Amino acid sequence: MQDNYISEEMVQKTVAFHGHMCPGLAIGIRAAEVALRDIGPHAHDEEVVAVVETDMCGVDAIQSLTGCTFGKGNLIHLDYGKNAFTFYRRSDGKGIRLVTRLEAFAEPDPEWEALRERLGDADLTPEERKRFWELHAARSRQILDIPLNELFDLKEPEGNIPSHARVMDSVTCEGCSEQVMETRTRRFEGKTLCIPCFHQLEQR
Ligand SMILES: [Zn+2]
Ligand SMILES: [Zn+2]
Predict the structure, then answer these.
(1) Tens of pLDDT along 40-62?
(2) 96 in a domain, yes or no?
(3) Is the pLDDT of residue 106 over 90?
(4) How many CB atoms lie within 10 A of CB 51?
(5) Is 64 contained in some domain?
(6) Is 179 a member of any domain?
(7) Co-location of 150 and 197 in the same domain
(8) Ligand nearest the Cα atom of residue 186
(9) What is the CATH number of the domain that holds 43?
(10) What percent of the chain is modeled with pLDDT above 90?
């Protein structure tokens, strides 16, 4: 990485949080780098909101590095299956959307690809497995060194900043008696139900 937004120590913490180094995590680390550079970190007096269009490895890097997390409600997942990450700063409304560029990635190492194909095979030896993870980490490390403007297309976000997460009233599900946020209930045969109870009744 070319600048000081993310230290090697922060990379190591992110790898520990995620459980391994992989290309998806590396892409997330670089997206977080752009977010920290152009939007700044989430803080008490500066709310940053991330909208991720994937639920793969990279999202763990966003959570670990930018202060946008599911638990705080400032990380929103759209299930589009795209390597696209949008960051907004509430104070002035600034937003950026990053999309990975296919051209940025080097040709994959044939040895890495061949081992990856065989990962699930029972006859893969411990040495081969170790070799795969070495090559996998090397490929991920390469992504950390790609210039940011080659790795991502920087675009204008399409939508507005998502509205604040609100605290919703809870009601009692008439199926399982558990408390459920009112906005997540379903009405069925005159009853107010949580989503799993609704699905159970609906499938009878
Ligand atoms: Zn991963
Ligand atoms: Zn229920």
Answers:
(1) 998 888 899 999 999 999 999 99
(2) yes
(3) no
(4) 22
(5) yes
(6) yes
(7) no
(8) 2
(9) 3.30.1330.130
(10) 76
Expressed in angstroms and rounded, the spacing between residue 172 Cα and the centre of ligand 2 is: 8
pLDDT confidence band for 2 (50 / 70 / 90) = low
pLDDT band at 7 (very low <50, low <70, confident <90, very high): very high
Q: 12 with 100, same domain?
A: yes
Q: How confident is the model at residue 1 (pLDDT cuts 50, 70, 90)?
A: low
Q: Please, where are the H alpha helices in 101-185? A: 110-117, 126-145, 148-151
User: Residue 127 domain-assigned?
Assistant: no
**Residue 98 lies in domain:** 8-105+146-155
Q: What contacts 150, CB < 8 A, 6 or more positions away?
A: 101, 103, 104
Q: In the predicted model, what is the mean pLDDT of residues 130-156? A: 93
| Tally of structural domains, the chain | 2
Ligand 1 center from residue 27 Cα (angstroms): 10
Looking at the CA of 25, name the nearest ligand.
Answer: 1
Q: How many Å apart are CA 65 and CA 76, to the nearest integer? A: 16
Amino acid at 108: P
Long-range pairs of 171-177 with CB within 8 A, sequence gap ≥ 24: 173/197, 175/200, 175/201
Render pLDDT for 179-188 as a digit per residue (tens, 0 to 9). Answer: 999 989 999 9
Question: 16 and 100: one domain?
Answer: yes
